[in-house]
Each structure stands twice: as structure tokens, then as C-alpha cells.
Write a structure and sequence with these properties.
By secondary structure, the chain is an alpha/beta fold. About 35% of the residues lie in helices and about 20% in strands. It contains nine helices and eight strands. The chain starts with a strand and ends with a helix. This is Pimeloyl-ACP methyl ester carboxylesterase.
Length: about 260
Amino acid sequence: MAYLRIGGVDLYSEVAGKGDPVLVLHGGFCSLESLRAQSDALVPDYQVFAFERPGHGRSADVDEEFSYARGVADTLAYLDAQGLGPVHVVGYSDGAIIGLLLALDHPERVRSLVAISANLDPSGFVGSPEAADANVLDALRIAEGRTADDPDAERMHYERLSPDGPGHAEVVLAKLLRLWTTEPRIDPAELARVVAPTLVMSGDHDTIRPDHSLLIASSIPGAQLCIVPGTTHGLVTERPELVSALIRDFLRQHTHQA
């Protein structure tokens, strides 16, 4: 296993393949395993870089609260540590939000962006017209068709992988709930500044409302929108071959663009 010292902590990292660089950014309470199918599909034609943020997967948690600003800073530090210039970015959920912020504030680092199940603010969640009232963890569970007693694949990954031990999951989930009910706060009008070719993707029964995904795509000049049928917020594992094919097709269109 490879670790890089990023932001004062050791973060788990994987690099595989050859070709144009693609950065894969996982979601909240996820590890790289959630995007394994997509990473594996890209490796034959691209060099895929991926790391796990603090408190996720094989990376130990930190004492501070989670924030998207920290996610962006860690991502930039990771790119620098790997000696990378502009990269194609494939982000899922929290990773897609970080990707949007990178494209907004650091356009020189993003060649293209695939943003899967992103939201601009907490009101984008199904059943959450007001950010502060959202019980996002319950919303995610319901949207994915699970009952409170169903096994959670991400929790099982966490218990298997986390250096903090399985009991620390509740600490991470509490911090994520505070994050998801207060951030991000991206003005859709600001997305007009995004210059990277962008594909916005979500499930037709996603925790992110379809109209919110449409808002993101329509606010980014030239962006493409894909609503994947028969899927929830877990579309990357529910329809892995389709999602991977869509990503590969999009990247092929922009592989040779600087």
C-alpha cells in the first residue's frame, strides 16, 4: 500500500495504468472501492490517480471537521505531490463537489470534469427544501432502497479498511452529517466561469433531485447531462458498466484537449 503525506497526514494513494492522467475522487463515507469498476475501466487507456481523504477508506481521520475547502486543498496538494499538471477529473458525490470547486477556482488543473451526483447546496437533496432540516443519512438510505437493518456496503468497507477501527464510523458519519447539512454553498451563476468540458451525471432516483442536476448542467457552458435510468445515489455500483462506458466515451471526446 502507498501513502503520501498530504496536509500533515498520510493519505492512501493508488496509481495505475498509462496515458493521459485521470484523477478519481470518491464520495463521502466511501473508499476507492466504490469507484473500483470505473477506475478499472479507465486503466487500459489512462493513468488513473486516486487517493482517500482523511477519515475515509485506509486514511486515518483527523480531529478537525470535514469541509470541501479542505478537500480541495488536499486534492491540489496531491496533484502537486504526484507532479501532475492539468488532469481529467472524475468525481462522485462529495468528490464531484470537490471537482466542481476545482474547475471553478483552479481551472488550470482541470482538463475535463465528470461530476456524478453532485449538489450545489444542501437544498439539492430529495425532500430537503431547507438545508438545516435535512436528515441526509436517512435520505441516502431511503433513496438507495435500504431499510435501517440492511447491510451498508460502505460501512462494511469502512470496518474492513479503516485504521481507526470500526467503532470510529459513527464519528465520521456525524461529521459528514454536519458537512452535508451546511455545505456546499455554490452559486449556480458562478458555474458560468467553468471552462472545462463537463459531464453532469446522476440517477433518476438519486438523492440529488433531477432538477438540481439539470440546474448544474445548464449553468456550465456546453455541459452535458446524463440521468442514468433505474438508479439511485448508488449508480456507480448499480450500473457500473453503463456508468463506466459513459465516462470513457466522454473522456475520449476530450483526451487530446489541453
